[in-house]
Design goal:
With about 130 residues, the protein is mainly α. It has seven helices and no strands. It has one domain: 434 Repressor (Amino-terminal Domain), CATH 1.10.260.
């Protein structure tokens, strides 16, 4: 995986950083969700120890398109649906949950099981307890 994204993950990027909202972008939640999916895909490619070519073969795109995905240089990028498809083809589960909002307008919330477990473990360490 690209060193930039490994650093983002190591520094806890997935733990609630909302860069797109901070920039005041209109579709910040959707952009954040796509960015999260992209990082999850790159992390999975790294975890599988496969090459760009092998990753491209598994998800059904050309190696140059995979290179663009990994380098974040695709002009138009990939749709959320396409990124979800890539994630599942690489062995990730993608969960979409819809529930009533507490406010008038709903929002898009990005989370992962791994993140939730780490968040609970971090909170437990701060409290001095153990997590099962």
């Amino acid at each position: 995986m690209n060193k930039k994204y490994r650093t983002l993950l190591d520094e806890g990027w997935e733990h609630g950083s909302d860069t797109f909202s901070d920039l005041g972008l209109e579709d910040a939640e959707q952009l954040q969700a796509k960015a999260y999916l992209r990082v999850a895909i790159l992390s999975q490619i790294d975890a599988l120890h496969i090459t760009q070519s092998e990753a491209a073969r598994r998800v059904g795109i050309s190696q140059p398109k995979m290179s663009n995905l990994m380098a974040d240089s695709a002009q138009r990028g990939f749709s959320s649906d396409k990124l979800k498809e890539f994630a599942t083809k690489l062995g990730l589960d993608v969960k979409i949950q819809v529930q009533p909002s507490r406010s008038e307008l709903g929002r898009v919330i990005v989370s992962s099981a791994a993140r939730s477990k780490r968040s609970r473990a971090g909170a437990a360490r701060r409290r001095g307890t153990k997590v099962a």
